[in-house]
Specification:
4-stranded antiparallel β-sheet; 3-stranded antiparallel β-sheet; 6 helices; 31% helix; 23% strand; globular
Length: 210
Amino acid sequence: MMDAQSKSFHRYSPSPEHVVGQKPHIFNVQAKSVSGDAMHLDDSTVKWWAERAKHPLGSSSNVPVNETLGVDSLLKKINRGDLLVVNSRRRNGLIIFREFYAEFAGPGAAVGGDFDRGCHKIIPLGNLSLIEPQDHEDHQKALKIRLQWIRLTQNFTDQPRSVDRAQMILDQFKTYFDKSTIDNVPNEAFALMVGVLPQTVRRVRLGLGA
């Protein structure tokens, strides 16, 4: 697991689009779940709800635009450095996979930017909503919250027994999401978040890990 304090970030510079009075773009993400403990991301869709200005910049009048993207398109958006924030008013989040580990970005956390370049897979959880930060303050707040989510997971990885680490991450997710949502998260995802084998997670899920 990567040390949260070892991550570095570039200073956020608002673009001309981030002006006072203009509403941020909001991306509502909904992946189609399948039976079993896996999620076929290639068949998933992303509901993209973008609030775009109807009038010139600075106007408070906005018109909503509905678009549909594949999850792979959202992954590309994250990998090219677009900075988004998980909506803090919903029970939602995003599992982000790297080569040797995975991280969970929960409500209020930053996603993308310099944080997640190089990720190769994502799993949206809940009725995922991603919002563009409007200014430097929003940007920095989201980064701090992302680090808090990382440190929470690191508390689990400090447990010496792999069974305990698996049980703790599963219990934590049960406080955020319903059973059907958790059942669609593959064992590999939980395993990569706390440094255990997928078989260990499976045993704990079946009540066999003691």
